[in-house]
Amino acid sequence: MNWLLGSEDEYSDPQAIIEANKAIQSLVDERETLQKSLTQFHAQHEKLESRVSEMEAALALKDAELKKTDNALKAQGEGIEEGLKLATALQEASTNVISFLQTLKDSDCSGKETDVEKKLQAHRDAGILSDAEAGLALAIAKDGQAHLFQAWPAVGVQDDDKRRMAAQMTALEQSYPGGLSNYISNARTLLEDSRAGRNPLTGWVPSVPTGTTCPYGTEVFKKYELAGESEVGFAGFVLVAGGLGERLGFSGIKLNLPTEKATERKFLQLFIQSILSLQHLYNTRHSADRQLPLAIMTSDDTHSKTQ
């Protein structure tokens, strides 16, 4: 596009005309560029003004929230102060109550031990308890077991039961390692470990125990059978029979299951006959008249049917 037009008479130099047109075009382009920049500047200015307005509004909201929080903290501080005063008063009251209850407990325990001591001395003086039995009972009572004797009636009432209890305590004292005092201590330790979730088997490593195989009819079998025959007179038998026979396809109690098809002899019958055979064998060989005891553990499902 030529911006300068004229006749050859007026502009005789074509090159000058071209250069002039280029200069004019450059000025026009520069003007358009400046116009675009100015438009962009105005747009950015408007955005900045809008952003400034938003920030001012946000700052105003934050200022209001800070004032609200400050007021709340002041009110809360007053409440906390009152709460601390109340907590201190409650703690003092709780300490007094605990002290009072401990005093009552100590007084009650001391009273129980004193009553039991007098009661045991009276039974010893009456010849119901020996000196050793009375001493053992008193030691047990002082070890926190006074309740065992607290309900004992006066001398002359149920004295045979008291003697049996004293005999049982003496037997336990002699049979348990460390005596009944050690038994009580171990029981407390185990209960505390259980309460705290401690495993008493920690550190133990399971292993397959060693034993002796006794094939039937061998000399080893005969040796141990003979040893068992001499001790069976002092044995008792326990039969655990609390379950039914559903897993075996049987609707009754398992004690009533047949052991074989020829006579359909029941399991309980076979079990008792085996005990009676051992009893007869022992009594015959040792000229004794022992009766081997049998205890049967039942459940609500099996008790009446077992009877």
From TrEMBL:
Gene Ontology biological process terms, A to Z: UDP-N-acetylglucosamine biosynthetic process
Keywords from the named record: Coiled coil
GO molecular function: UDP-N-acetylglucosamine diphosphorylase activity
Gene3D superfamilies assigned to the protein according to its UniProt record, in alphabetical order: Spore Coat Polysaccharide Biosynthesis Protein SpsA, Chain A
Statement: the UniProt record of this protein carries the keyword Repeat: no
Coiled-coil residue spans: 17-65
UniProt cross-references to SUPFAM superfamilies, sorted A to Z: Nucleotide-diphospho-sugar transferases
Protein name from the UniProt record: Uncharacterized protein
